[in-house]
């Protein structure tokens, strides 16, 4: 999704979420390329932290702001809620794996595939509907930004 083409009312909010998606995908790529256990473990930890914060700001601020706009969007939000729950279960399992454990690779791979699918749906379906509906997300963008830095600081 091209950020420059997003209408101003939705741009800042969607751009923040798109940037999160890009950053997570970058970590997926780094994990795949890294050879040693320590690097894989630290990338995995970072991925879990980033995904948890991203899911939380979507659940607390983004998704509620879209509720009730249309049946189509509500259906997508219901599906997203289920997908977030599955992702959180996968994150919890991954976080329980120790450095050097042979299962790290497998747990990480399944998480990347699952999250990749969810992110794709958000960008190609949900975000598209949000733009179509013309929802004003300017305040939401500020709230997302504030909450994100608050959560990142708490995790650091
Ligand atoms: Fe999501
Ligand atoms: Fe997302």
Describe the structure.
The longest helix is centred in the C-terminal third of the chain and has 31 residues, at 103-133. The model has no long low-confidence stretch (mean pLDDT 97). The chain starts with 7 loop residues before the first helix and ends with a helix. The chain has one domain (7-155): Four Helix Bundle (Hemerythrin (Met), subunit A), CATH 1.20.120. It is 83% helix and 0% strand. It has helices at residues 8-33, 37-66, 71-95, 103-133, 138-155. The protein is mainly α. Bound molecules: fe (ii) ion (FE2) (2 copies). The site of one fe (ii) ion has 5 residues, from α3 and α4. One fe (ii) ion binds next to α1, α2 and α4.
């Amino acid at each position: 999704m091209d950020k420059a083409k997003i209408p101003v009312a939705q741009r800042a909010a969607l751009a923040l979420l798109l940037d999160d998606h890009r950053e997570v995908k970058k970590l997926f790529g780094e994990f795949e390329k890294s050879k040693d256990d320590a690097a894989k473990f630290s990338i995995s930890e970072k991925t879990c932290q980033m995904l948890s914060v991203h899911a939380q700001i979507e659940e607390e601020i983004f998704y509620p702001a879209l509720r009730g706009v249309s049946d189509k969007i509500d259906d997508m939000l219901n599906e997203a809620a289920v997908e977030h729950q599955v992702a959180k279960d996968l994150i919890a399992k991954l976080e329980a794996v120790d450095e050097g454990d042979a299962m790290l690779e497998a747990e990480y791979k399944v998480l990347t595939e699952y999250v990749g699918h969810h992110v794709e749906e958000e960008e190609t379906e949900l975000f598209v509907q949000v733009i179509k509906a013309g929802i004003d997300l300017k305040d939401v963008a500020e709230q997302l930004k504030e909450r994100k830095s608050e959560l990142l600081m708490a995790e650091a």
